[in-house]
Amino acid sequence: MKEYYKKDEWKIIEEGFNPDMHEASESIFSLGNGRMGQRANFEEKYSGKSLQGTYIAGVYYPDKTRVGWWKNGYPEYFAKVLNAPNWIGILVDVDGLALDLNTVKVKNFRRELDMKQACLRRSFIAVFPNGHEIEIKTSRFLSIVNDELGVIRYSVKALNFAGTIHFTPFIDGDIRNEDSNYDEQFWDTLECKVDNASAFLLAKTRKSEFLVGMTMLYEVTKNNSILKLSSEPIRNDKYVASQVSIEVQKNDEVEIFKYVSVLSSLNHSSPGKIAINGRKVAEEGLQRKYDSLFKDHIAAWDEKWLHSDIIIKGDEAAQQGIRFNIFHLNQTYTGKDERLNIGPKGFTGEKYGGSTYWDTEAFLIPFYLSTAPQDVARNLLVYRYKHLGKAIENAEKLGFHSGAALYPMVTINGEECHNEWEITFEEIHRNGAIAFAIYNYIRYTGREDYLAEYGLEVLIGISRFWKQRVNWSDVKGQYVMLGVTGPNEYENNVNNNWYTSKMAVWTLEYTLKAIDYVMEVHPARYTEITEATSFNHEREIAAWNDVVQNMYFPYSENLKVFLQQDGYLDKEQKMASELDPAERPINQHWSWDRILRSCFLKQADVLQGIYTFEDHFDAEEIKRNFDFYEPRTLHESSLSPCVHSILANRIGYIHKAYDLYLRTSRLDLDDYNHEVREGLHITSMGGTWMSVVYGFGGLRVTEEMLHFDPVVPENWESLSFKIMYRENMLRININKTTTVIDNESGPEIRVMLKGKKYVIGKGKQLSV
Amino acid sequence: MKEYYKKDEWKIIEEGFNPDMHEASESIFSLGNGRMGQRANFEEKYSGKSLQGTYIAGVYYPDKTRVGWWKNGYPEYFAKVLNAPNWIGILVDVDGLALDLNTVKVKNFRRELDMKQACLRRSFIAVFPNGHEIEIKTSRFLSIVNDELGVIRYSVKALNFAGTIHFTPFIDGDIRNEDSNYDEQFWDTLECKVDNASAFLLAKTRKSEFLVGMTMLYEVTKNNSILKLSSEPIRNDKYVASQVSIEVQKNDEVEIFKYVSVLSSLNHSSPGKIAINGRKVAEEGLQRKYDSLFKDHIAAWDEKWLHSDIIIKGDEAAQQGIRFNIFHLNQTYTGKDERLNIGPKGFTGEKYGGSTYWDTEAFLIPFYLSTAPQDVARNLLVYRYKHLGKAIENAEKLGFHSGAALYPMVTINGEECHNEWEITFEEIHRNGAIAFAIYNYIRYTGREDYLAEYGLEVLIGISRFWKQRVNWSDVKGQYVMLGVTGPNEYENNVNNNWYTSKMAVWTLEYTLKAIDYVMEVHPARYTEITEATSFNHEREIAAWNDVVQNMYFPYSENLKVFLQQDGYLDKEQKMASELDPAERPINQHWSWDRILRSCFLKQADVLQGIYTFEDHFDAEEIKRNFDFYEPRTLHESSLSPCVHSILANRIGYIHKAYDLYLRTSRLDLDDYNHEVREGLHITSMGGTWMSVVYGFGGLRVTEEMLHFDPVVPENWESLSFKIMYRENMLRININKTTTVIDNESGPEIRVMLKGKKYVIGKGKQLSV
After folding, report:
1. Chain B residues within an 8 Å CB radius of A478
2. DSSP character for A696?
3. Is the separation of the CB atoms in B372 and B332 below 8 Å?
4. In this structure, which of A205, A596, B342, B634 has its CB flanked by the most CB atoms within 10 Å?
5. Interface of B with A in 315-334 (CB under 8 A)
6. Is A92 in a helix, a strand, or coil?
7. In terms of DSSP bridges, do strands A718-725 and B232-236 run parallel, antiparallel, or are they unpaired?
8. Is B190 helix (H, G, I), strand (E, B) or coil?
9. Does residue A718 carry a pLDDT above 60?
10. Residue in chain A lying closest to B72 (CA)
11. Of A332, A386, A336, A337, nearest to A359 (Cα)?
12. How far is CA B737 from CA A221, A738, B740, B754, in A?
């Protein structure tokens, strides 16, 4: 664990240039606006180590997989998040010497991510071998108002010389993915144009054939006056640039403002439209100018922060950590486009490819439900609805039939990309998370009609899968579910994983209720759905009920705990505390069979299940299972600590809850796992938010109302956050003695606070 | 199933040229002499589809593995069987037209593998576009007398023209492996020399740095008279050749005799020695001439056949099939060199790489024990002894310690090459087979002193592994073995695989006995061994006894059968006969999880265990388990049918035994699995031999004597084979009514025949 960045409530600050930390900082200081993202690569030349990353949401490459031995049904490609053409580049040359932080002497380096204003700033002094010193100040942002526009301001001041400065703003299509299975280039450049102070580059992804067009316009000022300059166009097969040269005297400051539009064929139907529309966006940028664009950008971000901010008083590290998480979640997904989703690294790296894991449903939807308009979470559900056909095809490849749906482990376009059999084919609990998200959305929003519109079809597909996936065991006289891998991936191909079976039975029960609802309230739509899905009402419902009533769940009568899977107690029982710290994380030190044989858990499946269905269990039962599983849990998944922290709060283990919270909130900022250079753990950031709001805030949502059972950790003065719930906006302020709930907007509302029911009038406050 | 080749007792015959079958025939007609092997590629140019294959025993390439996702402890390379420089090549040109069976018209094509003489012959008439007709006759053999020498005789007769024939015998180092993970070439050519009628090529494998030198000499005759010809040398970086031209009249026959020595750095310490010694071998060949060399070759093979032949009367297909198996086994391994072993494809293809699987111990040692001098099987045991250090290192990588040894799943040099975790890390029963082979060798040969010399150290290493691999289950109050994969690879990562646990406990028991023996009979050596292995006599023996006495084995009280693993009866129970034949083999039609969940077995582990320890079970017990498992078994491993056939014989299921025998004996000849082009199933050929001698012959070996309980299938007249057993050579002749045992050499011997004990005097006969 490093404490490298300066603590600040609203900013991440790096002081002093540290080339060894540069790639990690490129991840930490990433920017995004939901449509595109950009790692904190330098604009100017940098010959040191750097992971270039420009990402455009929904644009991927199907990279042919590499596996050692092939199993039937394996996917043929992995949809990779793509490093796209570089649009940020501005070469700087001073009297013939290139500015390159790897070769010049660097003084007073400061990089700052302003999370309030969603802006990246950098300043430093560069000393060239000839003694020339320049002072650089840059700032850039990806407009959240027009999400096809990126804006850069780059200033150079001659500190101790008179001479010539060249700026060469460029767009470069000659880029590669670090993560490429066959060292292929994923892009072809189709068009390169330059004239005067504008340039256009059109590139196409191989195989997937996405078009991306980038148009750049720029202007240069000296001491705040716009210069009329003649520019020299530079162009090759994959690169367009425009060079200008400016004479400077000592203390002159020259600035270049670069406005780049980034458009893709996801939203523009032809190369021609991409060119024309892209030109419009860039021109509007140039006309409105940096300051005015930035003002609008800040205003839009203020709105986001108004709804989603969490204020922690008395603990600056925690304050910075939680805002860092919220900031990146809001940068990654804005919910405008139902074709998009949230990849594990968001716009901050290539790793894990794909864009959608079960993380979305299990760890992200709660955040967007509470902090953004309902359509945002809804679009994440519709995304899965649109992939239903592919999920049915996927299940067919595995031998299922009659409309059974198995959603992929990881996907961009609905097709499965993952190729470890024990995960692809067996980590099927993801199907349950997708079903539960529908229930969760409706419970939160009250929009039960979603079932009729989209939800029921998905539920029928998933329920059919569960029905076919279980089998009757003659020896047990019950249904069993064989050969699965739970969220705890430290066991593979087990029988009767308690969590997976729980999700399966719950899905069947909920689907049966959903059918009753749609049949009663939307009878015409019900007929439509049964026809579209060839649903055999009588037979299928009877079969599902049979599974619900006769499912086997492993349980220890002796310990009175649910068993993660058959045979779990045959393992040698050891506690995580007995492990030599030098052997952790075990996935980096132990062979796979040893991990599988051990009782150690990456994350505890039974506790994940209890968290999901908390109201099915009493406090004693939760405590007993927590006391059994948590000491065996290594939390070697970034998704693990948050859920355990929430449960620890639930049963009054406040210290434990706080310890676990610390492991999640500053995971990336303090680089716990020494891997931040690859990108940030975007999806686990949703879990961090949950561990504050559900954990310390004690929020629970039932179909009737919100419940709060808050507690403030010892070293916090207070905790404050907002919740959007149906028609209301609530502000919750918690300190050591008092909880205050403001009904900021919306009608009178009932809430449960520490087990007592209250009614808070419109605009009124409850203080307890 | 195809019946493509002509039936003949001693030959495999192909009549008519069928390019679509050529690659399969290249496998079928392969030659080998234990030191090197050669697929039946044509000598002359062939532009059609062909899988080139020249193999040199022990010469491999460590090909960097390709896996999708890496697990800790995975091997970094797969040791590949290498396609070596091509030494058989002879280009033929007639008046400027190249002989190429892909372009000329071919008549009267006949290819024949003479198994008695271990010789490949070919004859045909080629009609060129210009109407010239030539008759070709070729024969070649790899000398079993001098196993570094290959000899080719190639004759061309001008049938209807006068003109010029060019011969260009060559050695080509520019070859590739079809099986190469990164499309690399595995060889560098170091030296190319040609003068007159001789040439030399020296090549080195990349990374592993094996040297291979090939020296070629040749002479040409016309109408049986040696010609003095001037030759033209041809040479490039990776190729040496020598061209001669001969004027012919109509009906002239010209012949080229090519003698090539193939030497490697396994046996010759320097490039210089390879060149000098190689020259000697080739010169001796040229001096002695084809006919004389061939005579010696035949005589040596006669000796092999004398010991290992099986004669089946009344069923030509069965006769041809069993000889085909015996022939290839004798070609692949001669037992001269303890550094060599038997790869799954022998010298007939590249697939599966490596050279040693558990196949050697479980399916091949019985063949070599009964048909070859004792040193042959012994060298296979010593091979493992020499890899003990690597096996201990391998176990250490997986977290074992204190001298525990885990032999690799597949290896050439003792290092693990396999990289599917469920096999590499979990298919550990191989360790048991290696221990059992020691017992089997001693039981057969009576050479108990092998324990003192080599065996005990191996047994201690393996026993230590088993001790560490089990763990105490509090809930069962017994030791369990978690997370293993049995020989039935259609289940992975199961708990308490009955077969693996059985092998483990047996190994511990046998090691305890072996310790007693060595301690008592070779006390000084025992002290040496305990010191070398840091063996803690008291503590380790007590620990092993504890496991032996308290091991858990899954068993169904209800069905009274051993259970393959925990939870096997939870599976939906179906019979193989209920499967749609279109879905078989299921490994080509079903996704992996579906295979794992099903009750279907690739081969039945419990039956493999009962076969191994048959004397631990009574006939009723064997029958009950056979009746339960065999109907669930798909025999989709080439190693499966033989063991099941032997057990079927044991319990009197003669028809079943014969059906299963048919699946193994002509597996390659009739290409059951449509994959013969890749090479032959060499190791399963040992199983075929067992299914005749142990199955129909009813041979059993106990420490005291041989037992026979023979039966002849309905459509055979008689079955006859020999058995080398300690000092005796026995011939067994079985027909429908009588069994005759000749004690051909060695002292008086006791045997058990159909449950009765007999004594057969020296040179005497027993007829019952």
Report:
1. none
2. I
3. no
4. B342
5. none
6. strand
7. unpaired
8. strand
9. yes
10. A591
11. A332
12. 111, 101, 10, 13
Compute the distance between CA of residue A502 and CA of residue A511 in angstroms, rounded to an integer.
14
What is the DSSP code string of B434-468? Answer: HHHHHHHHHHHH--THHIIIIIHHHHHHHHHHHHH
Q: Do A567 and B476 touch (CB under 8 A)?
A: no
Rounded Cα distance between B370 and A62, Å, is 56
Please state, in angstroms and rounded to a whole number, the distance separating the CA atoms of residues B379 and B545: 31
Determine whether A578 is an active site residue.
no
Backbone angles phi, psi at A110, to 5 degrees: -145, 130
Cis before A233? omega within 30: no
Closest CB to B570: pick one of A72, A475, A594.
A475
Average pLDDT for chain A: 95
Taking each helix axis as running N to C, give the angle between helix B456-469 and helix B498-521, from 0 to 180 degrees, rounded to the nearest 10: 140
- Select which of B112, B219, B415, B489 is catalytic: B489
Domains of chain B, first to last? 32-306 (2.70.98.40), 373-553 (1.50.10.10)
Under 8 Å between Cβ of B662 and B575: no
Q: Which of A69, A571, A590 sits opposite B420 (nearest CB)?
A: A69
* Three state DSSP letters for B220-268: EEECCEECCCCCEEEEECCEEEEEEEEEECCCCEEEEEEEEEEEECCCC
What digits encode the pLDDT tens for the residues A30-43? 999 999 999 999 99
Spatial contact of B464 and B455, defined as CB atoms under 8 Å apart: no
For residue B734, the cross-strand partners are B719, B739
- Distance in Å, alpha carbon of B599 to nearest chain A alpha carbon: 11
Nearest to A689 by CA among A707, A667, A704: A667
Cβ of B398 within 8 Å of Cβ of A593? The answer is: yes
What is the per-residue pLDDT for A1? 46
Q: Pairing between strand B198-205 and B187-195?
A: antiparallel
Q: Which one of the listed residues A255, A489, A540, A636 is annotated catalytic?
A: A489
Which residues in chain B land under pLDDT 50?
Answer: 1
B280/chain A closest Cα distance in angstroms: 44
Is residue B308 classed as helix, strand or coil in its secondary structure?
A: helix
Provide the strand spans (E) within B2-95: 11-15, 31-32, 36-38, 54-56, 60-64, 77-81, 90-94
Place of tokens 């670090």: A178
C-alpha distance across the termini of chain B, in Å: 39
Does B419 lie at the interface with A, CB-CB under 8 angstroms? Answer: yes
Report the pLDDT value the prediction gives residue A67, as an integer from 0 to 100: 66
Is B597 in Cβ contact with A482 (below 8 Å)? Answer: yes
- For A255-298, how does the pLDDT look when each residue is reduced to its tens digit (9 = 90+)? 999 999 999 999 999 999 999 999 999 999 999 999 999 999 99
Q: Mean pLDDT over residues A207-229, rounded?
A: 96
- Test the A interface: residue of B418, B493, B551 with most A CBs within 10 Å: B493
Looking at residue B1, its pLDDT comes to: 46
Tell me, what's the pLDDT at B180?
A: 84
Cβ-contact A481, A525 below 8 angstroms: no
Contacts of A480 in chain B (CB under 8 A): 570
Say if the Cβ atoms of B493 and A495 lie within 8 Å. Answer: no
Verify whether the Cβ–Cβ distance B471 to A597 is below 8 Å: yes
The reply to whether A574 touches chain B by the CB within 8 Å rule is no
Residue of B567, B570, B593 with shortest CB distance to A398: B593
Task: Using CA coordinates, name the residue in chain B closest to A495.
Answer: B567
Of the candidates A65, A493, A592, the beta carbon closest to that of B68 is on A65
Contacts with B474 from chain A: Cβ below 8 Å: 569, 573
Helix (H, G, I), strand (E, B) or coil at B36: strand
A357 CA: distance to closest CA in chain B (Å): 17
**Residue A687 Cα, gap to closest chain B Cα (Å):** 26
Average pLDDT over residues A534-556: 98
Contact B590 A65 (CB under 8 A): no
